[in-house]
Amino acid sequence: MLLSIHPVNPQARIVKQVTECLKDGGIIIYPTDTIYGLGCDIHHPKAVERICRIKKIDPKKSQLSFICRDLSHLSDYTKSIDTPLYRMLKMYLPGPYTFILPASKQVPKILKSKKETIGLRVPNNVICQTILQQLDNPILSASLPGEMVEELTDPEIIYATFGNLVDIVIDGGPGGIIPSTIIDCTTDDWMVLREGLGEWAA
Hints:
CATH architecture: Alpha-Beta Complex
Number of domains: 1
Helix content: 25-40%
Number of helices: 6
CATH topology: DHBP synthase
CATH superfamily: DHBP synthase
Shape: globular
Strand order of the largest sheet: 1-8-2-3-7-4-6-5-9-10
Number of strands: 10
């Protein structure tokens, strides 16, 4: 199913349809402030497994990440954040960044890496934030299968390519082609693991 959602004023009725699908364990493709991604409610292990099958990845060996609605929501899913880290996160979020942080007990086991870490994002995207507010749970954030090509910025092409693998594809307008910048914050020496859309000057 391809659903158009207004990128600035998301229609409540359609957002409700998306959140109900997620609550039922469904999988969606949705826009972020970077690229379109695969997502599900993180508290549905079968949906997480389904996304891992689509991506042909082993959840135990992959660094999975998910999106939260704001910094206080994010802080539920990582172990205590000290003042310098909090200030840095506050400066960069919401934005096109994924921060690798130690996972708290609230992170479902299937999402934790062997190192007990998790990638956390707060996208600067109205559609994401509206869905997260209604769902009240984080959403898995996984890139689409295969190489990132120009065509996959178009929701209609995304639907034609992957629509049979997921329950809903959201058309929130053209997407980007550059993914988020990934920063490892598991030690005091924060380190860029992938340079993406977000500029990093820490």
